[in-house]
Amino acid sequence: MKSHKDIYSKIRNLVSKVEHSSPILFNFGLGYSFDMKLKCLEIMQRYILHRIQECFDTAKEERKNSILLKDTGRLLNESIAFFEAYLNAFYSFLQIIAKVTPVFYDRKKLSKPITDRDFGSQIDHFKKNPDIDDKYSSYLKNEMRWYKNFIDNRNAITHNVSAFLGFGKEEMEFIDMPEKRIDFFKTGKPTKKLEKYILDNWNSLFEFLNFYAEHFSKRQIFVDREEELEEIRRRTLGKRV
After folding, report:
1. What residue segments make up the domains of the chain, in order of their start?
2. How confident is the model at residue 185 (pLDDT cuts 50, 70, 90)?
Protein backbone atom coordinates (compact mmCIF):
# COMPACT_ATOMS: atom_id res chain seq x y z
CA MET A 1 0.00 0.00 0.00
CA LYS A 2 1.12 3.56 -0.67
CA SER A 3 2.14 5.82 2.20
CA HIS A 4 -0.61 7.50 4.17
CA LYS A 5 0.68 10.86 2.98
CA ASP A 6 0.39 9.86 -0.68
CA ILE A 7 -3.11 8.47 -0.12
CA TYR A 8 -4.16 11.64 1.68
CA SER A 9 -2.91 13.73 -1.23
CA LYS A 10 -4.85 11.61 -3.72
CA ILE A 11 -8.13 11.60 -1.78
CA ARG A 12 -7.80 15.32 -0.99
CA ASN A 13 -7.47 16.11 -4.70
CA LEU A 14 -10.65 14.17 -5.36
CA VAL A 15 -12.49 15.98 -2.56
CA SER A 16 -11.33 19.32 -3.94
CA LYS A 17 -12.56 18.40 -7.41
CA VAL A 18 -15.98 17.48 -6.02
CA GLU A 19 -16.17 20.59 -3.85
CA HIS A 20 -15.53 22.90 -6.80
CA SER A 21 -18.07 21.07 -8.94
CA SER A 22 -20.90 21.23 -6.41
CA PRO A 23 -22.10 24.63 -5.11
CA ILE A 24 -23.91 22.91 -2.22
CA LEU A 25 -20.79 21.04 -1.07
CA PHE A 26 -18.69 24.16 -1.58
CA ASN A 27 -21.16 26.10 0.56
CA PHE A 28 -21.01 23.24 3.09
CA GLY A 29 -17.23 23.68 3.32
CA LEU A 30 -16.43 20.14 2.22
CA GLY A 31 -12.67 20.51 1.90
CA TYR A 32 -12.25 22.26 5.23
CA SER A 33 -14.49 19.74 6.97
CA PHE A 34 -12.60 16.81 5.43
CA ASP A 35 -9.25 18.19 6.58
CA MET A 36 -10.36 19.08 10.10
CA LYS A 37 -12.21 15.81 10.72
CA LEU A 38 -9.17 13.79 9.62
CA LYS A 39 -6.83 15.95 11.72
CA CYS A 40 -9.09 15.57 14.75
CA LEU A 41 -9.07 11.81 14.27
CA GLU A 42 -5.28 11.73 14.05
CA ILE A 43 -4.94 13.93 17.14
CA MET A 44 -7.29 11.73 19.15
CA GLN A 45 -5.45 8.65 17.97
CA ARG A 46 -2.12 10.07 19.13
CA TYR A 47 -3.60 11.07 22.48
CA ILE A 48 -5.12 7.67 23.20
CA LEU A 49 -1.99 5.75 22.14
CA HIS A 50 0.18 7.96 24.35
CA ARG A 51 -2.21 7.81 27.30
CA ILE A 52 -2.72 4.04 27.33
CA GLN A 53 1.03 3.45 27.25
CA GLU A 54 1.53 5.93 30.08
CA CYS A 55 -1.30 4.29 32.03
CA PHE A 56 0.13 0.80 31.58
CA ASP A 57 3.66 1.86 32.56
CA THR A 58 2.41 3.82 35.59
CA ALA A 59 0.29 0.91 36.82
CA LYS A 60 3.25 -1.43 36.50
CA GLU A 61 5.45 0.91 38.51
CA GLU A 62 2.84 1.73 41.18
CA ARG A 63 2.10 -1.94 41.78
CA LYS A 64 5.71 -2.40 42.81
CA ASN A 65 5.83 0.49 45.25
CA SER A 66 2.34 1.32 46.50
CA ILE A 67 -0.91 -0.17 47.74
CA LEU A 68 -2.95 2.73 46.35
CA LEU A 69 -2.73 3.15 42.57
CA LYS A 70 -3.24 6.91 42.65
CA ASP A 71 -2.00 8.02 39.22
CA THR A 72 -3.13 4.81 37.57
CA GLY A 73 -6.79 5.57 38.29
CA ARG A 74 -6.54 9.05 36.84
CA LEU A 75 -4.75 7.84 33.71
CA LEU A 76 -7.21 4.99 33.25
CA ASN A 77 -10.13 7.43 33.38
CA GLU A 78 -8.39 9.67 30.85
CA SER A 79 -7.68 6.66 28.62
CA ILE A 80 -11.37 5.74 28.61
CA ALA A 81 -12.34 9.33 27.79
CA PHE A 82 -9.83 9.55 24.95
CA PHE A 83 -10.87 6.17 23.57
CA GLU A 84 -14.53 7.17 23.43
CA ALA A 85 -13.58 10.49 21.80
CA TYR A 86 -11.41 8.62 19.29
CA LEU A 87 -14.30 6.34 18.28
CA ASN A 88 -16.57 9.32 17.67
CA ALA A 89 -13.90 11.25 15.77
CA PHE A 90 -13.48 8.22 13.50
CA TYR A 91 -17.25 7.98 13.01
CA SER A 92 -17.53 11.70 12.30
CA PHE A 93 -14.87 11.60 9.58
CA LEU A 94 -16.66 8.81 7.74
CA GLN A 95 -19.79 10.97 7.52
CA ILE A 96 -17.80 13.40 5.36
CA ILE A 97 -17.04 10.57 2.94
CA ALA A 98 -20.77 9.90 2.78
CA LYS A 99 -21.30 13.50 1.62
CA VAL A 100 -18.97 12.98 -1.35
CA THR A 101 -20.16 9.66 -2.81
CA PRO A 102 -23.61 10.53 -4.28
CA VAL A 103 -22.22 13.05 -6.80
CA PHE A 104 -20.60 10.22 -8.76
CA TYR A 105 -23.97 8.78 -9.75
CA ASP A 106 -26.66 10.14 -12.04
CA ARG A 107 -29.73 10.54 -9.83
CA LYS A 108 -32.03 10.31 -12.85
CA LYS A 109 -30.90 6.73 -13.45
CA LEU A 110 -31.27 5.57 -9.85
CA SER A 111 -34.45 3.89 -8.65
CA LYS A 112 -33.68 5.11 -5.12
CA PRO A 113 -31.47 8.07 -4.12
CA ILE A 114 -28.15 7.44 -2.36
CA THR A 115 -28.23 8.94 1.12
CA ASP A 116 -25.46 11.36 2.07
CA ARG A 117 -26.35 11.56 5.79
CA ASP A 118 -24.96 8.34 7.19
CA PHE A 119 -21.94 6.33 6.03
CA GLY A 120 -23.22 3.04 7.42
CA SER A 121 -26.63 3.32 5.75
CA GLN A 122 -24.92 4.33 2.54
CA ILE A 123 -22.61 1.31 2.33
CA ASP A 124 -25.53 -0.99 3.24
CA HIS A 125 -27.42 0.51 0.32
CA PHE A 126 -24.57 -0.28 -2.07
CA LYS A 127 -24.22 -3.84 -0.78
CA LYS A 128 -27.93 -4.47 -1.22
CA ASN A 129 -27.95 -2.88 -4.68
CA PRO A 130 -24.72 -3.99 -6.41
CA ASP A 131 -26.13 -3.02 -9.82
CA ILE A 132 -25.47 0.62 -8.92
CA ASP A 133 -21.71 0.05 -8.91
CA ASP A 134 -20.57 -3.55 -8.87
CA LYS A 135 -16.90 -2.83 -8.17
CA TYR A 136 -17.55 -0.48 -5.26
CA SER A 137 -20.26 -2.75 -3.82
CA SER A 138 -17.92 -5.74 -4.02
CA TYR A 139 -15.18 -3.84 -2.17
CA LEU A 140 -17.57 -2.78 0.58
CA LYS A 141 -18.79 -6.35 0.99
CA ASN A 142 -15.41 -8.09 0.96
CA GLU A 143 -12.90 -5.57 2.29
CA MET A 144 -14.83 -3.57 4.90
CA ARG A 145 -15.37 -6.19 7.59
CA TRP A 146 -13.28 -4.07 9.94
CA TYR A 147 -15.96 -1.36 9.74
CA LYS A 148 -18.65 -3.68 11.12
CA ASN A 149 -16.59 -4.32 14.27
CA PHE A 150 -15.68 -0.65 14.58
CA ILE A 151 -19.24 0.64 14.29
CA ASP A 152 -20.61 -1.98 16.68
CA ASN A 153 -18.08 -0.94 19.33
CA ARG A 154 -18.68 2.74 18.67
CA ASN A 155 -22.47 2.41 18.92
CA ALA A 156 -22.35 0.25 22.05
CA ILE A 157 -19.93 2.60 23.80
CA THR A 158 -21.69 5.77 22.65
CA HIS A 159 -25.30 4.75 23.26
CA ASN A 160 -25.28 1.96 25.83
CA VAL A 161 -22.26 1.53 28.10
CA SER A 162 -18.87 3.05 28.81
CA ALA A 163 -15.74 1.55 27.32
CA PHE A 164 -14.15 -1.13 29.53
CA LEU A 165 -10.35 -0.87 29.56
CA GLY A 166 -8.08 -3.18 31.49
CA PHE A 167 -4.52 -4.35 31.91
CA GLY A 168 -3.25 -7.30 29.92
CA LYS A 169 0.08 -8.98 30.50
CA GLU A 170 1.93 -6.73 28.08
CA GLU A 171 -0.41 -3.86 27.21
CA MET A 172 -3.84 -2.28 27.65
CA GLU A 173 -6.87 -4.20 26.41
CA PHE A 174 -10.58 -3.45 26.05
CA ILE A 175 -13.77 -5.49 26.05
CA ASP A 176 -14.90 -6.00 22.47
CA MET A 177 -18.62 -5.44 21.82
CA PRO A 178 -19.28 -7.03 18.42
CA GLU A 179 -23.07 -6.92 18.67
CA LYS A 180 -23.49 -3.28 19.76
CA ARG A 181 -24.14 -4.43 23.33
CA ILE A 182 -22.58 -6.27 26.25
CA ASP A 183 -23.94 -8.89 28.65
CA PHE A 184 -22.73 -7.90 32.12
CA PHE A 185 -23.35 -11.36 33.55
CA LYS A 186 -21.62 -13.32 30.81
CA THR A 187 -18.17 -14.66 31.66
CA GLY A 188 -15.26 -14.85 29.25
CA LYS A 189 -16.05 -11.59 27.48
CA PRO A 190 -13.92 -11.10 24.34
CA THR A 191 -11.04 -8.64 24.66
CA LYS A 192 -8.74 -7.01 22.14
CA LYS A 193 -5.36 -5.34 22.47
CA LEU A 194 -6.16 -1.67 22.30
CA GLU A 195 -3.07 -0.34 20.55
CA LYS A 196 -3.29 -2.96 17.80
CA TYR A 197 -7.01 -2.30 17.38
CA ILE A 198 -6.44 1.44 16.91
CA LEU A 199 -3.52 1.05 14.50
CA ASP A 200 -5.31 -1.64 12.50
CA ASN A 201 -8.34 0.64 12.11
CA TRP A 202 -6.10 3.49 10.97
CA ASN A 203 -4.41 1.33 8.33
CA SER A 204 -7.74 -0.13 7.21
CA LEU A 205 -9.15 3.38 6.83
CA PHE A 206 -6.31 4.39 4.53
CA GLU A 207 -6.65 1.21 2.51
CA PHE A 208 -10.29 2.19 1.98
CA LEU A 209 -9.39 5.80 1.13
CA ASN A 210 -6.81 4.57 -1.38
CA PHE A 211 -9.38 2.39 -3.14
CA TYR A 212 -12.00 5.13 -2.93
CA ALA A 213 -9.73 7.74 -4.53
CA GLU A 214 -8.62 5.43 -7.32
CA HIS A 215 -12.13 4.19 -8.04
CA PHE A 216 -14.00 7.48 -8.03
CA SER A 217 -11.32 9.52 -9.78
CA LYS A 218 -12.30 7.52 -12.90
CA ARG A 219 -16.00 8.33 -12.60
CA GLN A 220 -17.93 11.30 -13.89
CA ILE A 221 -19.31 13.90 -11.48
CA PHE A 222 -23.05 14.49 -11.86
CA VAL A 223 -23.95 17.94 -10.57
CA ASP A 224 -26.65 20.30 -11.82
CA ARG A 225 -25.04 23.60 -10.81
CA GLU A 226 -28.09 25.73 -11.58
CA GLU A 227 -30.33 23.45 -9.55
CA GLU A 228 -27.93 23.50 -6.60
CA LEU A 229 -27.53 27.29 -6.75
CA GLU A 230 -31.32 27.62 -6.73
CA GLU A 231 -31.47 25.29 -3.72
CA ILE A 232 -28.91 27.45 -1.88
CA ARG A 233 -30.90 30.59 -2.66
CA ARG A 234 -34.07 28.92 -1.45
CA ARG A 235 -32.45 27.85 1.82
CA THR A 236 -30.95 31.31 2.34
CA LEU A 237 -34.26 33.08 1.76
CA GLY A 238 -36.01 30.57 4.02
CA LYS A 239 -33.62 31.37 6.87
CA ARG A 240 -34.21 35.10 6.43
CA VAL A 241 -37.96 34.62 6.62
Report:
1. 4-176+189-235
2. low
